[in-house]
Task: inverse folding
């Protein structure tokens, strides 16, 4: 398998799905729709929808019902990026190599378009009921999406991150932030794919644990790249953690220690996936590549 070619195909397929579900730029709220679409079409790895679709395939899923959830997953993720970049939070001017949403459309529209994307994601997910006879799977997937992205997941992690911004924090607090702000969305994506495909409960639990390892690996790699990469490679400012006095795995363990922690989480995730009866070679390769990513 040529991994990069396969990844490009899957990323492009995810991009096509996302475009299908974007709001139309028309009517009195046209500016909001434009701001939402500006952020959604800014590129990116599309990691979460790809992980969702590959997990769906892992358990034999073959319907289009996963597509609205793929689009919604990226809408929820993008909403969090819009709000992260706002002056009240990280105050970043660039994201994915171009101006952030609030720099183009203003701070107020940045706030509103982020909220609108979060709400619109649920409008999109609800269309899944018309695409399958397995209504219970859709209900369960909606519950996972709500739980993993709200106060007990992504938003909870973001709130603790904001409260502790620039303060010295213990590893337990940092792990809570990472497990919720970052890992929860990856858990959400992969669990949703598994549930929509009809995976048994014990397999969904394995997927959740593996996804947590993937999420922690991804976030620790962010810490590492903030120190070792360039703005051109990442498409966003580097050394921002140091500038904002943020505690990261690099500040806690040093660069080499952070790399070891990242490798440990990654290896555990791969081992969990390999323990499943079902196999998806591409999914295993994708997880393995995350530990060595440069952007």
Result:
């Amino acid at each position: 398998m040529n991994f990069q070619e396969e990844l490009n195909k899957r990323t492009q397929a995810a991009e096509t799905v996302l475009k299908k579900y974007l709001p139309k730029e028309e009517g009195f709220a046209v500016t909001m729709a434009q701001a939402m679409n500006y952020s959604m079409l800014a590129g990116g790895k599309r990691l979460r929808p790809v992980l969702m679709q590959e997990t769906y395939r892992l358990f034999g899923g073959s319907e289009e019902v996963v597509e609205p959830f793929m689009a919604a997953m990226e809408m929820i993720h993008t909403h969090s990026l819009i709000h992260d970049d706002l002056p009240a939070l990280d105050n970043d001017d660039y994201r994915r190599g171009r101006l952030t949403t609030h720099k183009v459309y203003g701070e107020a529209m940045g706030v509103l378009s982020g909220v609108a994307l979060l709400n619109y994601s649920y409008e999109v997910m609800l269309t899944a009921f018309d695409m399958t006879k397995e209504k219970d799977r859709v209900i369960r997937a909606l519950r996972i999406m709500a739980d993993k992205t709200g106060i007990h997941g992504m938003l909870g992690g973001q709130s603790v991150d904001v409260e502790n911004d620039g303060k010295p924090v213990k590893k337990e607090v940092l792990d809570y932030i990472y497990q919720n702000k970052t890992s929860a969305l990856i858990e959400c994506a992969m669990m949703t794919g598994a549930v929509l495909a009809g995976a048994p409960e014990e397999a969904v639990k394995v997927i959740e644990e593996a996804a947590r390892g993937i999420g922690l690996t991804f976030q620790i790699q962010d810490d590492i790249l903030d120190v070792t990469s360039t703005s051109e490679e990442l498409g966003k400012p580097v050394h921002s953690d140091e500038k904002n006095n943020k505690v990261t795995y690099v500040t806690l363990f040093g660069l080499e220690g952070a790399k070891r922690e990242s490798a440990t989480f990654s290896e555990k995730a791969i081992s969990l996936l390999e323990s499943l009866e079902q196999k998806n070679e591409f999914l295993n390769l994708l997880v393995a590549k995350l530990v060595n990513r440069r952007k």
